[in-house]
Specification:
Number of helices: 2
Helix content: 10-25%
Distance between the termini: 109 Å
Structural class: alpha+beta
């Protein structure tokens, strides 16, 4: 009987507790490893997103900044006649040489400082850039008269510029677009008041759109009220004028999976009905701050030290970008992964 009892003896309570403890230790270790890997993956993904966002932001801003000014015809040294009506009443119609910066609390006509969606974050910098498009169309014939005229075998409408089609490419201009026409002496900024497909032409008549043209004559003069007729020669160029503004603003989103601020770009295009319209576009989510220094007098200077924006030859941009998702860093001071990165852009239109 005692031999049978010995063969049927079970596991003791102490052994069960030891086995449970070992199992619990293994489970906790496996769970910790899984959570650690998950956090590492979230951090890696967020870091990749921040790096990609900064790369895209710098690339897009660099494209605008490198082209600041009007360089297509003569290296940006021509006289500029601005025919837009009341140019000083809008940030995008006043020609200031192609670049202007604003410090943290400086007011810009491009966007208000505030906390509403789309408004600029107080303390962040803003840049206004104006440049000619990289796509330019050679002039074929220019009718400066008030009636249709036959020029170069074409019937060209009044106050209109007929353009070539390089490589068979037609223009994409619409009524209301802002454009630049230039030769090796002068550049003229005006708004398109009409488009003629048959003549492949655009009109520059005096008009009352937004903003409209103060005159139909493109010649350079100090006062738009005076007349100075200029006929663009064949080979002169016509291109879209592209005013843009870059800033950090509120995007209207909240929550643990969204950052409340983004990098924005404002651009201006014609609406097809004779008006130029500014459009805001969200570029990169998670940008919380932007500061800009300008190469002036051979050193990078703050906005208040730049006395002549036409002499700025370089821009240093510093962005602070955070991941939209919270819980991507283990730091005690913040829950979102954040990086501050800088980029330098040479203004090729101004570097001699």
């Amino acid at each position: 009987m005692s031999a049978l009892s010995s063969r049927q003896a079970g596991v003791s309570l102490v052994e069960v507790m030891i086995a449970l403890a070992l199992g619990l230790i293994v489970s906790v270790g496996a769970l910790s490893l899984m959570l650690g890997n998950r956090q590492a993956n979230r951090t890696t993904e967020s870091l990749s997103r921040v790096q990609e966002g900064s790369r895209v932001a710098f690339e897009l801003m660099s494209r605008d900044l490198r082209s600041a000014g009007i360089n297509a015809c003569n290296g940006g040294v021509s006289r500029v006649m601005n025919l837009l009506r009341d140019p000083g009443t809008r940030w995008w119609s006043e020609w200031t040489g192609g670049l202007r910066g604003f410090a943290g609390t400086d007011a810009s006509g491009a966007v208000l400082i505030g906390t509403a969606e789309g408004q600029r974050v107080s303390g962040t910098h803003l840049m206004e850039v104006m440049h000619g498009s990289s796509t330019a169309f050679p002039v074929k014939a220019h009718n400066t008269g008030s009636a249709d005229a036959t020029l170069s075998g074409l019937t060209v409408p009044a106050y209109s510029i007929a353009m070539e089609k390089p490589g068979g490419q037609s223009h994409s201009f619409v009524t209301g677009d802002l454009v630049v026409a230039c030769d090796y002496v002068d550049s003229a900024i005006f708004q398109i008041t009409g488009v003629n497909a048959d003549a492949h032409s655009i009109a520059h008549a005096a008009a009352s759109g937004e903003p409209g043209n103060c005159s139909a004559s493109l010649g350079f003069r100090l006062n738009c009220a005076t007349s100075s007729v200029k006929t663009l020669p064949p080979g002169a160029l016509v291109m879209r004028l592209e005013p843009v503004a870059w800033y950090v603003g509120y995007n209207g989103r909240t929550g643990s999976e969204s950052s409340p601020t983004s990098l924005y770009r404002i651009s201006v295009r014609g609406d097809g009905a004779g008006n130029a319209v500014a459009t805001r576009e969200e570029v990169i989510e998670g940008v919380t701050a932007m500061t800009v220094a300008y190469m002036f007098d051979e050193t990078y200077q703050s906005v208040d030290k730049v006395s002549d924006w036409s002499r700025v030859t370089g821009v240093e941009i510093t962005l602070t970008i955070q991941s939209p998702e919270s819980g991507t860093t283990t730091g005690s001071s913040m829950t979102r992964l954040q990086r501050t990165v800088s980029h330098v852009v040479n203004l090729r239109n101004r570097v001699k």
